[in-house]
Design brief:
Blueprint lengths: L6 H14 L4 E6 L3 H4 L7 H7 L2 H6 L4 E6 L2 E2 L10 E2 L5 E4 L9 E4 L4 H10 L1 H4 L1 E6 L3 E3 L1 H9 L5 E4 L10 H18 L2 H22 L1
Parallel strand pairs: 1-2, 2-7, 3-6, 5-9
Antiparallel strand pairs: 4-5, 6-8
Helix pairs in contact: 5-9
Length: 211
């Protein structure tokens, strides 16, 4: 989120405009309420702020409404989180992650449109306030590195320090707690049950798209 923006004000205006325009099925992009899930341990406004808006969407009383949840995009590793030159001369990442912990929900940004199309095509199944996450893979960072290295790269991961992350201050404020939160959540039984439920809902929407 850019500094100085007022997401609550923008959201209120967007929802009001949709109602005034007679929108019958609102698709709203949301994210998990990290503060609630972690008991206040992790502060990620870009996630929690979006989640708190869900209530406004529900109270707007659209005929149909659906929440879609984007994953950590594969494309992130080609942009702000692309591999950087490390102190030992290798190319790779310095992230606050145990490289062996499977905690990353990943997906292709271009697949999110299929989720939206499926929801719009089948409002009776996905238009009653359902949460539809896109989860293409559930992986550890070592699995990411191994996959890329099988393509001929020689990437590495330093999971003990994030001081060398080539990120803007805003990017570091968002991504570092995000990685820490994902790793902590992967070790919690309730989080694993949530993952299974998310995957099941994702499969159901996939069925809709294929019809």
């Amino acid at each position: 989120m850019e500094k100085g923006t007022d997401e609550l004000k923008q959201t209120t205006a967007a929802i009001r405009a949709a109602k005034d325009a007679g929108v019958q099925h609102l698709i709203w992009s949301t994210l998990p309420n990290v503060e609630a899930i972690s008991g206040g341990k992790f502060h990620i406004p870009a996630f929690t702020g979006r989640a708190k808006i869900d209530r406004m969407v529900k109270e707007a009383e659209f005929a149909n409404y659906t929440f879609v949840m984007a994953p950590f995009y594969y494309q992130n590793l080609m942009g702000v989180l692309g591999p950087q030159k490390q102190a030992d001369g290798s190319s790779g990442w310095a992230l606050p992650l145990d490289p062996d912990v499977r905690c990353l929900h990943m997906g292709d940004i271009s697949d999110l449109g299929n989720i939206v199309a499926g929801a719009l095509a089948h409002p009776d199944e996905a238009g009653n306030g359902e949460y539809l996450p896109l989860v293409g893979d559930f992986v550890s960072f070592n699995e990411i590195v191994d996959t890329l290295n099988r393509q001929g790269h020689k990437f590495s991961l330093n999971g003990e320090c994030c001081d060398r992350m080539a990120l803007s201050p805003d990017g570091r404020t968002m991504y570092v707690p995000s990685f820490e939160g994902m790793q902590a959540g992967s070790k919690h039984q309730a989080a694993r049950r949530t993952l299974l439920a998310d995957l099941e809902r994702q499969w159901e929407v996939g069925v809709c798209v294929q019809r």
